[in-house]
Amino acid sequence: MSRLESILKFFEPDKTQLPERRHDLDWLRVLAFGLLIFYHIGMLYVENWGFHIKSQYLSSQLESVMLLVNPWRMPILWMISGIAIRFVLARVTLLHFIKWRSYRLLLPLLFGVLVVVPPQLYYEMRFNEGLDLSYWEFYCAFWQWDNPIFDNYQPGIWPHFDVNHLWYLRELWTYSLYLIVLLPIFNSRMIGSLTDCLAERPLLLSILLSLPILVIQFSLEETRNAFGLLFLCYGYLLGWHPKLWKKLRQQSFRLLFCGVVCYLCLVYFYNVYWVVQSEETNPLILILGRLIHSIDRLVWVLAILGLAFRLLNHQSDPLRYLNEAVYPFYILHQTVIIVIAAQLSSLHLRPVLEVVFVIISTVLICFACYALIKRVSLLRPLFGLKLISSSGWLNHRIVVVLVSLIVLLFGLEILF
N or C, which end of the chain is more exposed by having fewer CB within 10 Å? Predict the structure, then answer.
């Protein structure tokens, strides 16, 4: 064995207890991204939460409903992503993982930033600043980095070029690189023994898992990125422990009950104290509210994992279809939502009718786009789908060149 091979062994997880494919995690991934569509539609109508555009029909009561999923909707995705990374690394080399991770994430991200996301900015500027340009005129100006019409818009990855809802792809690629650096530690015997021990003691494990969550919640103003990396690491470290999954399955309904109690407490805190907070609000109340928010986040993640393992660990034809459709749906859905909502705003439909129309139109358009994308070889890699084996010599060579340029230029831009 060469020295390089000896070093790379530290980056490989233990393959002696390789579990079978977990269909419940596939279902969870599909359902979590599906929930994301409804969540972003809800963002059109909540009164106090910012979004690119807003409907004329706003509701503060809807915020209480959105709080049911707000704390855990992204942590559950990061947890699944961490588990999936361990499965992949057990089957492919580290270099292969980096290459295809970049292909599957950075190429769709670049395409999304340049093609899918700009309509969101266009309608945001029309609604907020009365922009009086056709989309073609706007898109031509979009490529001018110093155009004054964008002076009020902070730069994202480049001046007025941003990832918007595709931030998950950017961070997933970045966190995957961070995780690679940590693999020699995570794959060590010491960490393996520790996680094995904790998997048999769920109460102690829950306490230890909650401590970093509390530190992040109380020490950082912007917690999104820190929670993403944390739950990705949790998924990698804990996703293979059968005893833990057995405990989660056994305790899933108790965890669900605890989650409901936490949610009701969170809604009470949000409506009574958070929305109307002032200088007279007792700081201890605010600390208690943030503590409830942190506990709610972890309890729901554990409850959902346990329920999914109990109820959804089976394969089916709809799952095979939806599992591939998730990626294009995710890339397209927010732009589709904003374009449809913007067009409907001038019709002054009744509130319920508008919501139903937005939901149905978004789902149908995403399905129609996916039906096209999966059949066109050159579109598939732009939406994170694998190339069809019969797609030909030219397409594969194009992808190799594109990935090389993206990793060198776009990837470095994201990191630095």
Answer: C
